[in-house]
Automatic annotation (TrEMBL), chain A:
It comes from Leptospira neocaledonica. InterPro entries: Glutaredoxin, GRX_PICOT-like, Monothiol_GRX, Monothiol_GRX-rel, Thioredoxin-like_sf. NCBIfam families: Grx4 family monothiol glutaredoxin. The keyword Membrane does not apply. Coiled coil: none annotated. This is Glutaredoxin.
Automatic annotation (TrEMBL), chain B:
Belongs to the BolA/IbaG family. PANTHER family: BOLA TRANSCRIPTION REGULATOR, BOLA-LIKE PROTEIN 1. This is BolA family transcriptional regulator. It comes from Leptospira neocaledonica. Pfam families: BolA.
């Protein structure tokens, strides 16, 4: 991955405590898994920023390499990769996600 | 790529694992894999999922749009 792209991705992740790479936007998710994660974050009242990977093919492919994770959505908290849809849902059920976001 | 091929790929990559594939929409696209594997012991859930994804590296780039995953230590 070139440095410019990596800097861009790192900059996005650092821009907010909770950051979500998704398909579409929180108000108009373009994939069921992205919608699922935004629903979880909304239900917890989480304050987060998101990036629509459908708007940027470089980030869309780069983020997979960056996280060593082949799918989107991807959730980051305090700069740490948390997981995709299944992990987020599971962590919300167990209460672990609430702890991480301080909800 | 059939559901059975996905199951075989995961099992080949994680020898001794038990793999159940669910295809709730019967479209072969939005599938879910439930994987039980002794090698998950001591690994975080992210690492467990990465191990499964690694067995499907090519497939996830192409045909499979979304793979739901549930991993358990067997």
């Amino acid at each position: 991955m070139d440095k410019e792209l990596q800097d861009k991705i790192e900059g996005l992740i650092a821009s907010k405590k909770i950051f979500l790479f998704m398909k579409g936007t929180p108000d108009a998710p373009m994939c069921g898994f992205s919608a699922g994660v935004t629903n979880v974050l909304r239900s917890l009242g989480a304050d987060y920023n998101s990036f629509n990977v459908l708007s940027d093919i470089g980030v869309r492919e780069g983020i997979k390499e960056f996280a060593n994770w082949p799918t989107i959505p991807q959730l980051y908290i305090d700069g740490e990769f948390i997981g995709g849809h299944d992990i987020v849902v599971e962590m919300a059920k167990s209460g672990e996600l609430q702890k991480k976001i301080g909800a | 790529m059939t559901v059975q091929e996905i199951q075989e790929k995961i099992q080949a990559g994680l020898p001794g694992s038990e793999v159940e594939i669910q295809d709730p929409y019967n479209d072969g696209v939005h599938i879910k894999a439930i994987v039980k594997f002794s090698g998950f012991a001591g690994k975080s859930i992210v690492e467990q999922h990465r191990m499964v994804y690694a067995t499907l590296k090519h497939e996830l780039k192409a045909e499979v749009h979304a793979l739901g995953l549930e991993t358990k230590v067997s």
